[in-house]
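User: Hey, quick favor. My workstation is busy. Could you predict this chain's structure for me?
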Amino acid sequence: MPVRLLMIDDDTRLAAMVGEYLRAAGFVVEVAGTLAAGRERLLTHVAPASPEAFDALVLDLMLPDGDGLDLCRELRAEPRTRQLPLLMLTARGEPMDRIVGLELGADDYLPKPFEPRELLARVKALLRRAAPAPSGADEVLRFGRLEVDLGARLARVDGKPCDLTSHQFELLVVLAQSPGRVLSRDQIMDALKGHPMEAFDRSIDVHISRIRAVIEDDPKEPRRVLTVRGAGYVFAKKQDAD
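Assistant: No problem, here it is.
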């Protein structure tokens, strides 16, 4: 089945160029020029109920009828769209705007202007991370109250599902599969099959912050995912609550 992608962007020239490029790569691409039209398309066709459900979303921050961040927040609060791979486009120059988008649940961002080839590579990376685990991959990593279910692609604390995006879950898996080992940001990106990041990028830090918010008793004093200054992050093998 071809990948179905929705692009919400009011720049008709850009959307036409990107759409043509992605269709040539085998994608089915739909474009919405407003927040309202994009929201309607997304919520009308939602997996698994609709065969026309979208596999990924490319969302511009600045739209004529609202802010893309509002839709990002809404989609992550809706159980049916919580795991939808979401790449955010932004023409804003401030890193803080991108950080806010990641905190709200975007999986990745791409500043404008960009090359369609890079957009394609990033979307493919998101789709790889969101792909179901191969049959038989039903391993569950257990760390006291925390469970990381690889088959179900779900983390649980005390049996309750954690609210993580697919990208954040993959990041947690990378850390949990190497307990006690310090991983640099570059090593984490390599393990995620990611792409080179800009020098000032803080996406890893933002996603780590979100993971801590849902698995730690006190995110400000983490005991599971620890920062090693100047080196990276380490997943603690044990903590007092185990």
